[in-house]
Amino acid sequence: MRALGIVAIALGLGVAGVWLASGMHMATQTEKLVETRTKDDFGDEVINRSWEKTFELGLDFAGPGAGGLLGVGGVLIFLARRRRKAARSTATVSLHLDAPSACREHLDSGRVRGPGPPRRSPRRNFPEFASV
Predict the structure, then answer these.
(1) Cβ atoms within 10 Å, residue 113
(2) What would the pLDDT profile of 53-99 be if each residue is shown by its tens digit?
(3) 68 Cβ contact list (under 8 Å, min separation 6)
(4) Which of 5, 62, 68, 87 is the most exposed place for a label (fewest CB within 10 A)?
């Protein structure tokens, strides 16, 4: 899951890089106005304007795309880290449960005290709040 998160973050950074490299447009452009200057038969300058099909990525697509990929990647890495910590803590608990006789011998030797007296609840310490 961690590798997938790293891939998603890399793709998100790639989308942001493409947006930066293509001109940082606020909106995606699908057509671009091209002006050409020519001289007519009489020597006058004429401006011909035409629309050419093009695609320049804008923030309207790049923003949610990059943000979504970065968010998903972050969540996947967080979940992988959490799962790894949980697996590590259960491995530690199982090690302690596998050796009860060694713990009992250590407690019987007198070097370590047992759990001690039970703790009193706060309601017993304050009888006026016992009915709450």
Answers:
(1) 7
(2) 999 999 999 999 999 999 999 999 999 999 988 888 775 555 455 55
(3) 12
(4) 87
